Amino acid sequence: MSLEPQELGDQNDHRKSTAQPGPSSPSRSRTVRNVLILVGMLLLMAAGAVTAVYNVPAGHRAVVLRFGKFLRIAGPGLHLKAPFGIDRLIDAVADKTEVETFGFRSVRPGIGNKVVKDPESRKESLVLTGDLSVMDVEWTVEYTPQDLRKYLFNAHDPVQLIRDTAESVLGQIAGDRSFDHLLRNREEVRRAYRDGLQAALDRYDCGIRIVEVRLRNVCPPDAVRDAANEVNEARQEKERLINEALEAYGREIPRARGEASATVDSAQGYAVERVNKARGEASRFSDVLKEYRRAGEVTKKRLYLEACREVIPRAKNVIVVDSKQKNTLSLDLDRPGSSKGGEK
Questions:
Q1: Are residues 215 and 114 in the same domain?
Q2: Is residue 268 part of a domain?
Q3: How far, in Å, are 24, 83, 100, 105, 130 from residue 108 at the CA level?
Protein backbone atom coordinates (compact mmCIF):
# COMPACT_ATOMS: atom_id res chain seq x y z
CA MET A 1 0.00 0.00 0.00
CA SER A 2 1.48 3.32 -1.02
CA LEU A 3 0.87 6.68 0.51
CA GLU A 4 0.74 10.00 -1.07
CA PRO A 5 3.33 12.64 -0.23
CA GLN A 6 0.75 14.87 1.42
CA GLU A 7 -0.38 12.06 3.69
CA LEU A 8 3.19 11.29 4.66
CA GLY A 9 3.70 14.88 5.70
CA ASP A 10 0.62 14.87 7.86
CA GLN A 11 1.74 11.70 9.63
CA ASN A 12 5.16 13.20 10.37
CA ASP A 13 3.60 16.34 11.79
CA HIS A 14 1.39 14.22 14.03
CA ARG A 15 4.39 12.28 15.39
CA LYS A 16 6.21 15.53 16.17
CA SER A 17 3.24 16.91 17.99
CA THR A 18 2.95 13.82 20.23
CA ALA A 19 6.65 13.48 20.95
CA GLN A 20 7.26 17.05 22.13
CA PRO A 21 5.23 18.41 25.11
CA GLY A 22 3.24 21.48 24.77
CA PRO A 23 3.99 24.78 26.47
CA SER A 24 1.75 23.91 29.58
CA SER A 25 3.63 20.76 30.76
CA PRO A 26 6.43 22.46 32.88
CA SER A 27 3.97 24.58 34.90
CA ARG A 28 1.84 21.53 35.70
CA SER A 29 4.77 19.56 37.16
CA ARG A 30 5.89 22.57 39.15
CA THR A 31 2.43 22.88 40.68
CA VAL A 32 2.39 19.23 41.69
CA ARG A 33 5.78 19.61 43.32
CA ASN A 34 4.66 22.67 45.30
CA VAL A 35 1.56 20.87 46.48
CA LEU A 36 3.61 17.94 47.73
CA ILE A 37 6.00 20.27 49.56
CA LEU A 38 3.08 22.09 51.18
CA VAL A 39 1.47 18.84 52.29
CA GLY A 40 4.79 17.66 53.74
CA MET A 41 5.25 20.91 55.63
CA LEU A 42 1.72 20.70 56.97
CA LEU A 43 2.29 17.12 58.10
CA LEU A 44 5.59 18.13 59.68
CA MET A 45 3.96 21.03 61.50
CA ALA A 46 1.16 18.77 62.71
CA ALA A 47 3.63 16.19 63.96
CA GLY A 48 5.63 18.92 65.70
CA ALA A 49 2.51 20.35 67.32
CA VAL A 50 1.45 16.92 68.52
CA THR A 51 4.87 16.09 69.98
CA ALA A 52 5.39 19.58 71.46
CA VAL A 53 2.29 19.63 73.69
CA TYR A 54 1.82 17.31 76.65
CA ASN A 55 -0.55 17.07 79.59
CA VAL A 56 0.41 16.11 83.15
CA PRO A 57 -2.50 14.54 85.11
CA ALA A 58 -3.47 15.76 88.56
CA GLY A 59 -1.33 14.28 91.30
CA HIS A 60 1.55 13.56 88.89
CA ARG A 61 4.84 15.23 87.97
CA ALA A 62 6.70 15.09 84.68
CA VAL A 63 10.50 15.11 84.61
CA VAL A 64 11.61 16.71 81.33
CA LEU A 65 14.90 15.52 79.79
CA ARG A 66 16.55 17.27 76.83
CA PHE A 67 18.86 14.95 74.97
CA GLY A 68 18.89 12.76 78.11
CA LYS A 69 19.88 15.60 80.46
CA PHE A 70 17.61 16.89 83.22
CA LEU A 71 15.84 20.09 82.22
CA ARG A 72 12.94 20.73 84.62
CA ILE A 73 10.01 19.24 86.55
CA ALA A 74 6.54 20.09 85.28
CA GLY A 75 3.43 20.10 87.42
CA PRO A 76 -0.14 19.14 86.49
CA GLY A 77 -1.64 20.78 83.38
CA LEU A 78 -0.72 21.48 79.73
CA HIS A 79 2.89 22.25 78.88
CA LEU A 80 5.14 22.72 75.85
CA LYS A 81 8.38 20.92 75.05
CA ALA A 82 10.79 20.59 72.17
CA PRO A 83 9.23 18.28 69.53
CA PHE A 84 10.49 15.28 67.58
CA GLY A 85 11.97 13.51 70.63
CA ILE A 86 14.34 16.32 71.58
CA ASP A 87 12.64 16.53 74.99
CA ARG A 88 11.67 13.27 76.68
CA LEU A 89 9.26 12.87 79.63
CA ILE A 90 9.38 10.66 82.70
CA ASP A 91 6.04 10.41 84.48
CA ALA A 92 6.10 10.20 88.29
CA VAL A 93 3.32 10.15 90.89
CA ALA A 94 3.69 13.06 93.31
CA ASP A 95 3.71 12.34 97.06
CA LYS A 96 3.15 8.63 96.55
CA THR A 97 4.07 6.52 99.56
CA GLU A 98 5.88 3.29 98.78
CA VAL A 99 6.24 0.39 101.23
CA GLU A 100 9.11 -2.07 101.54
CA THR A 101 8.73 -5.14 103.74
CA PHE A 102 11.57 -6.90 105.53
CA GLY A 103 11.49 -10.34 107.13
CA PHE A 104 8.24 -11.31 105.40
CA ARG A 105 6.40 -10.97 102.10
CA SER A 106 2.78 -9.88 101.61
CA VAL A 107 0.76 -12.30 99.51
CA ARG A 108 -2.51 -10.34 99.66
CA PRO A 109 -2.00 -6.70 100.76
CA GLY A 110 -4.77 -4.85 102.54
CA ILE A 111 -6.94 -5.55 105.56
CA GLY A 112 -6.36 -9.05 106.83
CA ASN A 113 -3.39 -9.44 104.52
CA LYS A 114 -1.68 -12.78 104.26
CA VAL A 115 2.09 -12.90 104.71
CA VAL A 116 4.67 -15.61 104.17
CA LYS A 117 8.34 -16.05 105.03
CA ASP A 118 10.50 -17.36 102.21
CA PRO A 119 14.20 -18.27 102.63
CA GLU A 120 15.32 -14.79 101.59
CA SER A 121 13.00 -13.02 104.05
CA ARG A 122 14.04 -15.40 106.86
CA LYS A 123 17.66 -14.54 106.20
CA GLU A 124 17.10 -10.76 106.32
CA SER A 125 14.96 -10.95 109.48
CA LEU A 126 17.76 -12.41 111.66
CA VAL A 127 19.87 -9.74 113.38
CA LEU A 128 22.68 -10.00 115.91
CA THR A 129 22.25 -8.05 119.17
CA GLY A 130 24.91 -6.40 121.29
CA ASP A 131 25.09 -9.34 123.72
CA LEU A 132 25.70 -11.79 120.81
CA SER A 133 22.13 -13.10 120.75
CA VAL A 134 20.07 -13.65 117.59
CA MET A 135 16.69 -11.94 117.21
CA ASP A 136 13.96 -12.34 114.60
CA VAL A 137 12.68 -8.92 113.47
CA GLU A 138 9.96 -8.16 110.91
CA TRP A 139 9.46 -4.53 109.89
CA THR A 140 8.20 -2.24 107.15
CA VAL A 141 9.58 1.03 105.77
CA GLU A 142 7.26 3.61 104.22
CA TYR A 143 8.96 6.25 102.07
CA THR A 144 8.22 8.83 99.40
CA PRO A 145 10.40 10.57 96.76
CA GLN A 146 10.90 14.06 98.15
CA ASP A 147 13.15 15.31 95.31
CA LEU A 148 12.41 13.63 91.96
CA ARG A 149 15.64 14.82 90.36
CA LYS A 150 17.80 13.29 93.07
CA TYR A 151 15.57 10.22 93.30
CA LEU A 152 15.91 9.47 89.56
CA PHE A 153 19.52 10.47 88.91
CA ASN A 154 21.51 10.28 92.18
CA ALA A 155 20.84 6.57 92.75
CA HIS A 156 21.11 3.80 90.17
CA ASP A 157 18.40 1.73 91.90
CA PRO A 158 16.56 3.68 94.63
CA VAL A 159 14.53 0.68 95.83
CA GLN A 160 17.60 -1.51 96.26
CA LEU A 161 19.39 1.39 97.94
CA ILE A 162 16.56 1.67 100.49
CA ARG A 163 16.57 -2.07 101.17
CA ASP A 164 20.33 -2.29 101.62
CA THR A 165 20.41 0.82 103.82
CA ALA A 166 17.44 -0.36 105.91
CA GLU A 167 19.10 -3.70 106.68
CA SER A 168 22.43 -2.05 107.47
CA VAL A 169 20.94 0.52 109.86
CA LEU A 170 18.86 -2.11 111.68
CA GLY A 171 21.98 -4.23 112.18
CA GLN A 172 23.74 -1.22 113.67
CA ILE A 173 20.80 -0.38 115.97
CA ALA A 174 20.51 -3.99 117.19
CA GLY A 175 24.28 -4.29 117.65
CA ASP A 176 24.30 -1.33 120.03
CA ARG A 177 21.59 -2.82 122.27
CA SER A 178 21.06 -6.00 124.23
CA PHE A 179 18.49 -8.70 123.52
CA ASP A 180 16.35 -7.70 126.52
CA HIS A 181 16.50 -4.02 125.62
CA LEU A 182 15.15 -4.71 122.13
CA LEU A 183 12.30 -6.78 123.56
CA ARG A 184 11.24 -4.28 126.23
CA ASN A 185 11.84 -0.95 124.43
CA ARG A 186 10.31 -1.36 120.99
CA GLU A 187 9.12 2.25 120.72
CA GLU A 188 12.55 3.68 121.57
CA VAL A 189 14.17 1.27 119.10
CA ARG A 190 11.66 2.24 116.39
CA ARG A 191 12.38 5.96 116.78
CA ALA A 192 16.14 5.41 116.78
CA TYR A 193 15.88 3.22 113.68
CA ARG A 194 13.73 5.75 111.79
CA ASP A 195 16.09 8.63 112.57
CA GLY A 196 19.16 6.56 111.72
CA LEU A 197 17.69 5.41 108.40
CA GLN A 198 16.76 8.97 107.40
CA ALA A 199 20.24 10.22 108.32
CA ALA A 200 21.86 7.49 106.20
CA LEU A 201 19.68 8.29 103.17
CA ASP A 202 20.43 12.00 103.57
CA ARG A 203 24.14 11.22 103.37
CA TYR A 204 23.52 9.49 100.03
CA ASP A 205 21.60 12.60 98.82
CA CYS A 206 19.03 10.43 97.05
CA GLY A 207 15.97 12.64 97.66
CA ILE A 208 14.05 10.05 99.73
CA ARG A 209 12.02 10.93 102.83
CA ILE A 210 11.10 8.26 105.36
CA VAL A 211 7.40 8.54 106.23
CA GLU A 212 7.12 5.83 108.88
CA VAL A 213 8.86 2.73 110.20
CA ARG A 214 6.84 -0.06 111.81
CA LEU A 215 8.27 -2.96 113.81
CA ARG A 216 5.79 -5.70 112.98
CA ASN A 217 7.35 -8.44 115.09
CA VAL A 218 10.33 -8.52 117.45
CA CYS A 219 10.88 -11.92 119.01
CA PRO A 220 13.46 -14.69 119.48
CA PRO A 221 14.01 -17.16 116.63
CA ASP A 222 11.74 -20.19 116.42
CA ALA A 223 14.45 -22.57 117.66
CA VAL A 224 14.77 -20.83 121.04
CA ARG A 225 11.38 -19.11 121.31
CA ASP A 226 9.98 -21.41 124.01
CA ALA A 227 13.05 -21.03 126.23
CA ALA A 228 13.06 -17.28 125.69
CA ASN A 229 9.38 -17.08 126.63
CA GLU A 230 10.08 -18.95 129.87
CA VAL A 231 12.94 -16.58 130.67
CA ASN A 232 10.71 -13.61 129.89
CA GLU A 233 7.94 -14.96 132.15
CA ALA A 234 10.43 -15.50 134.98
CA ARG A 235 11.72 -11.97 134.52
CA GLN A 236 8.21 -10.58 134.61
CA GLU A 237 7.48 -12.57 137.79
CA LYS A 238 10.67 -11.20 139.31
CA GLU A 239 9.69 -7.64 138.44
CA ARG A 240 6.20 -8.23 139.86
CA LEU A 241 7.61 -9.42 143.17
CA ILE A 242 10.04 -6.51 143.27
CA ASN A 243 7.20 -4.08 142.60
CA GLU A 244 5.08 -5.64 145.33
CA ALA A 245 7.99 -5.42 147.77
CA LEU A 246 8.59 -1.80 146.83
CA GLU A 247 4.90 -1.10 147.29
CA ALA A 248 4.92 -2.70 150.76
CA TYR A 249 8.10 -0.81 151.58
CA GLY A 250 6.53 2.45 150.48
CA ARG A 251 3.45 1.71 152.58
CA GLU A 252 5.03 0.36 155.80
CA ILE A 253 8.16 2.49 156.11
CA PRO A 254 6.35 5.85 156.13
CA ARG A 255 3.81 4.48 158.61
CA ALA A 256 6.59 3.21 160.90
CA ARG A 257 8.43 6.49 160.57
CA GLY A 258 5.25 8.36 161.45
CA GLU A 259 4.66 6.20 164.51
CA ALA A 260 8.29 6.63 165.60
CA SER A 261 8.06 10.38 165.11
CA ALA A 262 4.80 10.48 167.12
CA THR A 263 6.40 8.43 169.93
CA VAL A 264 9.44 10.71 170.01
CA ASP A 265 7.25 13.81 170.04
CA SER A 266 5.11 12.35 172.85
CA ALA A 267 8.21 11.48 174.88
CA GLN A 268 9.64 14.94 174.34
CA GLY A 269 6.33 16.51 175.38
CA TYR A 270 6.17 14.30 178.48
CA ALA A 271 9.76 15.25 179.34
CA VAL A 272 8.97 18.94 178.98
CA GLU A 273 5.83 18.49 181.08
CA ARG A 274 7.68 16.65 183.85
CA VAL A 275 10.52 19.17 183.85
CA ASN A 276 8.14 22.09 183.99
CA LYS A 277 6.11 20.42 186.74
CA ALA A 278 9.27 19.70 188.74
CA ARG A 279 10.42 23.24 188.26
CA GLY A 280 7.04 24.54 189.40
CA GLU A 281 7.05 22.33 192.50
CA ALA A 282 10.61 23.37 193.28
CA SER A 283 9.65 27.01 192.87
CA ARG A 284 6.59 26.53 195.08
CA PHE A 285 8.68 24.73 197.71
CA SER A 286 11.15 27.58 197.65
CA ASP A 287 8.34 30.08 198.15
CA VAL A 288 6.90 28.01 201.04
CA LEU A 289 10.32 27.69 202.58
CA LYS A 290 10.80 31.41 202.37
CA GLU A 291 7.46 32.04 204.08
CA TYR A 292 8.17 29.34 206.65
CA ARG A 293 11.36 31.05 207.59
CA ARG A 294 9.49 34.26 208.05
CA ALA A 295 6.55 32.81 210.11
CA GLY A 296 7.18 29.21 210.98
CA GLU A 297 4.12 28.43 213.13
CA VAL A 298 1.65 30.05 210.79
CA THR A 299 3.12 28.33 207.81
CA LYS A 300 3.17 25.00 209.61
CA LYS A 301 -0.50 25.29 210.53
CA ARG A 302 -1.44 26.34 207.00
CA LEU A 303 0.34 23.37 205.51
CA TYR A 304 -1.37 21.08 207.95
CA LEU A 305 -4.81 22.42 207.06
CA GLU A 306 -4.13 22.18 203.33
CA ALA A 307 -3.03 18.57 203.74
CA CYS A 308 -6.17 17.77 205.70
CA ARG A 309 -8.33 19.37 203.02
CA GLU A 310 -6.81 17.10 200.42
CA VAL A 311 -6.70 13.87 202.47
CA ILE A 312 -9.97 13.89 204.40
CA PRO A 313 -12.32 13.92 201.36
CA ARG A 314 -10.65 10.73 200.09
CA ALA A 315 -10.84 8.88 203.45
CA LYS A 316 -13.66 6.41 204.17
CA ASN A 317 -13.32 6.35 207.96
CA VAL A 318 -12.21 9.35 209.98
CA ILE A 319 -11.27 8.93 213.65
CA VAL A 320 -11.06 12.10 215.69
CA VAL A 321 -8.76 11.86 218.72
CA ASP A 322 -9.00 14.53 221.41
CA SER A 323 -6.78 14.47 224.48
CA LYS A 324 -9.58 15.97 226.60
CA GLN A 325 -12.02 13.17 225.76
CA LYS A 326 -11.73 9.61 227.00
CA ASN A 327 -13.30 7.99 223.90
CA THR A 328 -12.60 8.35 220.18
CA LEU A 329 -15.11 9.64 217.66
CA SER A 330 -15.49 7.61 214.48
CA LEU A 331 -17.00 9.25 211.40
CA ASP A 332 -18.22 7.00 208.56
CA LEU A 333 -17.96 9.16 205.47
CA ASP A 334 -19.66 6.59 203.24
CA ARG A 335 -23.06 7.12 204.89
CA PRO A 336 -25.28 10.00 203.77
CA GLY A 337 -24.69 13.12 205.78
CA SER A 338 -21.41 11.83 207.19
CA SER A 339 -19.48 14.65 205.62
CA LYS A 340 -21.60 17.12 207.47
CA GLY A 341 -21.03 15.29 210.77
CA GLY A 342 -17.33 15.22 210.05
CA GLU A 343 -17.36 18.94 209.47
CA LYS A 344 -18.94 19.38 212.89
A1: yes
A2: no
A3: 78, 43, 14, 9, 35
Asked if residue 302 is part of any domain, the answer here is yes
For the segment 180-197, the average pLDDT, to the nearest whole number, is 92
Q: How many domains does the chain have?
A: 3
Let me know whether 63 and 109 are in one domain.
no
At residue 32, the pLDDT reads 78
* 243-270 pLDDT, tens digit each: 999 999 999 999 999 999 999 999 999 9
In this structure, are 108 and 194 located in the same domain? yes
Secondary structure (H, E, C), 182-248? HHHCHHHHHHHHHHHHHHHHHHHCCCEEEEEEEEEEEECCHHHHHHHHHHHHHHHHHHHHHHHHHHH
Q: What is the pLDDT of residue 110?
A: 57
Domain co-membership, 130 together with 64: no
Q: Which residues contact 326 (CB under 8 A, 6 or more apart)?
A: none
66 and 105 in one domain?
no
Q: Dump pLDDT digits (tens) for 39-96.
A: 888 887 777 777 778 888 887 888 888 888 888 888 888 888 878 778 888 887 777 8
| Containing structural domain, residue 88 | 50-94
- CA 196 – CA 158 distance, rounded (Å): 18
